[in-house]
Amino acid sequence: MNKPIYSVLLFCIGLQIHYAQTSLSNVTVDKAITPTATVASLGKYGDKSGVDNKGKYNTSIDLASLKSGELNYNIGLSYSSNGLKINDWGARTGLLWSDNFTSAIYRTVRGQPDEYAGSKVTGLEGGSYTLDQYLVIKETADALENNNTAGRDGESDIFHYNIFGLTGSFVIVNGQVLQINYSEKLKIEVGSGYSSFTITLKNGNRYYFGNNNTIEYTTYDTQCNDEIAPLPKQKTAWFLTKIEDLNASNIINFTYGSISNYYTEDKSETITIKNKTYAGDAPCWNHQLKYLFAPNTCTRYKIFDTKYLTKVSSQDFTVDYLYTDREDIMTEKLLDHIEIKNQGNVIVNKIKFDYQKFGNNNGAAYNNWGYSVRYFLNKVSIGKSLDQKYTFTYNNLPQLPARFSYTQDLAGIYNGTAGSSFLPTEYVQKAQPIFTVVNSPLEGWPIPGIPSSDRSPHFPQSTYGLMASIQYPTGGIENILYEPNTVIKDSNTPVESEFYGVRTKRIELLSNTGDMITKEYKYAIAEYDSINNNITFGAISSLFSLNDEFGGHVSSVYDAGQDTNCGGGGPYGSFYIDRYMKINSNKIYDLNRFQGDFISYSDVTEITNGKRFKIKKYITMEDWFTQPLLGELNSYSPNSEYFWFANLMSDQYEGEISNSLYGVKRFSRWGYDYKDYQFINNYVINRDYIPVNHFGTAYYTDNLNAYAVGKYIFPNRWYNNYKKSETTILEDGGKLTQETTFKYYDINGYNNLKSVENKYSDATTDRKDFTYSYTGDFLQNYMIGIPVKTEEYKNNKIIARTYYGFSKVWWHHEKLFPSGISKTNMNALIPDNEWTEEIKYDQYDNKGNLLQYTTKFGVPVTLLYGYNKTQPIAKIEGLDYTVFLSLPGLGVNASGYDNLEICQKSNADVDAASEEVLLTALDNFRKNPAVSGYQITTYTYDPLVGVTSITSPSGVREKYIYDPYTNRLKEVKVMEKDSNGNYAYKISKEYQYNYKQ
């Protein structure tokens, strides 16, 4: 009788793990090297309060808006979730929040890191493989098993970028950057060895990533009895170091600190079983089966060297980010407060972050440090006195279990159950027939009981940790209520079943006066009756995925070799192949099949106060699994990122509810198109065992049985919105429709917008065409998205033609700036030869400040800048700039006007007293005989707050008064004569914000 072998689990504390070359009981995990949780959160930007087609509640908070020249830097927070995953560590602003303070390019390393890998695998589309293809498969598997980073690589690493809300992805193939499913063509340059990246937008603005080694490095280490040791730490994120405008006239720099440590990323379990002969066994004669029941657990650690933002600086502002230490991940940080300073290094605004901490490390062992500690953002305070307060509450925080507890569903969300294993009861039960032995011991050995836990979703536990309410600075409150996600698993019996996560059920908006607006959400399929112009609702519109009857939790592993007890006569002489079954707590495919989520709804209806409704219909598509080409894929395989149109809105209906009837008043529709340029095929290659003729090629077709090959796709595809229609339904049932058609240039025209045409119900049309330049300075500076000519048509007859000029011929420098706007006289016989200048830009300084422009009437206007050349402080109408520099009595010269008293005084303007000194200097300047005959308007500022005074050519002055703590405009005062003929300031406007303390 064969004796069962029970494995002994050795749990080693620490990070130095020894790896066996082979192991039947290794745990099935996704071995991709990924960025840290904080970096991954940079890719999650929610919308301002609303609900998307995943049922998620999203909200955003704008904290500050800063500007340096034409470069914008906005500071904000975003929240988005349809279920808190209890193993989540959160970012530096707490769980479920992400920030847009910085930007990063981050990647997932699959197979070998692309910068080190040798040749890419191609042409394994399936069918009968040749000897050469077998050798490619073999060499790729060898490279993976031996961490040969110079070997063949079957998979491209995928890179993601988030440039303050502009998101996308790309791969690098043979040194060429290929964007994946993109709508805006970017110029992406790669540094040697992937040391840095530069992304240039179509307006010429450049974003630099990873310079000076501002790079994150990560890998994983395991206690999994893993077959293959992980790679050394690899580059997984490149942080934004600089933003630069077209001419490098304005620059925003980003500075970082460094953090190195590790944290637990995942815990999982596998049981490897051999209790009888399975299909796939190939024993030799007299070979004895080695029965096995081997439980194994796996703890994966994320090991990282990463960065955290400490300062953002420009010629106009400095932003300091200050942190406090966390107690869950040692050496990691929580953002404590932000200080915004003007060019004089004076603090003009503060932002303070307060957190609720739940749990502690009392009695925690070294290997589970921080598991019980969580941070939730509960208050954001803004202003120099921090009196603008956002306050947040969350559902049932004290009842959340520690990370990596068994009380979680398969999506990782709390389900409130008790258990003793990560193995899911539902799929363990479905797998039991595989191991059934009818006639023991002749047919096999009955296995012991398999420990498992209920990992199904449970409501309301799935809401724990989610946002419950927001109180705004005005005192208004927003309450968020949830309900479970539901799906129909059997179309023949359309009964809704609870699914993972939650969706938003209701949002209540309470004003500080007690008024309430309610928004309720339903997710049923909405059908539009175009005859009666109303809506009827059908079944739930959810789309979900379950790959197979075992939920992706059952796979195979093989043992093979020479058996000296065999006398030959088997399929391969004395060589045997034994198949073992594995039950895994992790799936071998991605549950999040809907572009990173586990569910998607095609229809979302918002009902306001029970009277008005808005229905949004989305295109919902399930990502493709890795396609099997050879054998059985028994390891984790990613999805193809194929469906570019997933989550795009297709229709929207708006109307009113009366007597339970949903009457449509307006509807819109969108049409999309795409162009495929290249498909990047990726090959997942696994070797189940070392075949008998591994070192020879004579029997390569037999050797192929030891391998599995799968394919997934990244499309280099550009997509666009080519049509939109808006229809208004009249009281008599008639319809007025406006249809807008968008046309684009092909890839040689950088996919730029070519024309926009509107067609109206009365059959009239208007159209605007766009022309760009792709040569010379435009191409060199990647200004390929700025039109140089537009043409406007009415009913296909041209009515206007506009030219936008650019030049590098300026006084003292050769930077590329706009030179003017001209329009053609469409009544001329030869339109292109008859044009007028609408405005001419005559001169710039080397910072990009416009020094002189000339109006269409030929009047020159000179602009003078102060506050270290960041703000216009004087506008002189009728005076040429070069003439101004030659005027006597001002102290200016041909090199510039920096020595003017008004410039010096503006540079020193840091408070009310110094502003009064500046105002006196400006008044004296206006009275100077050299310029007193011109129309002069003067300005003063509180940098980063706003304009503080405007004095018109007539001498009338407006003063702008700001709240000293919030920086919000409080009053506008105008200088007027009183009844005695004396000048005094009178309030012309007042602003009240009613912040609740």
Question: What do these coordinates show?
Answer:
The protein is mostly beta strands. It has one domain. The strands form 3 sheets. The chain has a 46-stranded mixed β-sheet that branches. A hairpin with a 6-residue loop joins β50 (957-962) and β51 (969-977). α7 (901-907) packs antiparallel against α8 (912-927). The longest helix has 16 residues, at 912-927. The model is unreliable at 1-22 (pLDDT under 50).
Helix and strand topology:
Layout: E1 5-6, H1 37-41, E2 50-51, E3 57-68, E4 71-81, E5 97-99, E6 104-108, H2 131-145, E7 158-163, E8 166-173, E9 176-180, E10 187-190, E11 197-200, E12 206-209, E13 215-222, E14 234-244, E15 251-274, E16 292-313, E17 317-325, E18 333-342, E19 347-358, E20 374-382, E21 388-394, H3 425-431, E22 467-471, E23 477-488, E24 496-510, E25 516-522, E26 524-529, E27 534-540, E28 542-543, E29 554-562, E30 575-584, E31 600-601, E32 603-608, E33 612-618, E34 627-630, E35 649-658, E36 661-687, H4 700-703, E37 707-729, E38 735-744, E39 753-759, E40 765-771, H5 776-780, E41 789-794, E42 797-807, E43 817-824, E44 835-844, E45 850-855, E46 860-866, E47 871-877, H6 881-886, H7 901-907, H8 912-927, E48 935-942, E49 946-951, E50 957-962, E51 969-977, E52 983-990
Parallel strand pairs: 1-16
Antiparallel strand pairs: 2-3, 3-4, 4-5, 6-7, 6-14, 7-8, 8-9, 10-11, 11-12, 12-14, 13-14, 13-16, 14-15, 15-16, 15-30, 16-17, 17-18, 18-19, 19-20, 20-21, 21-22, 22-23, 23-24, 24-25, 25-32, 26-27, 27-36, 28-31, 29-30, 32-33, 33-35, 34-37, 35-36, 36-37, 37-38, 38-39, 39-40, 40-41, 41-42, 42-43, ...
Helix pairs in contact: 7-8
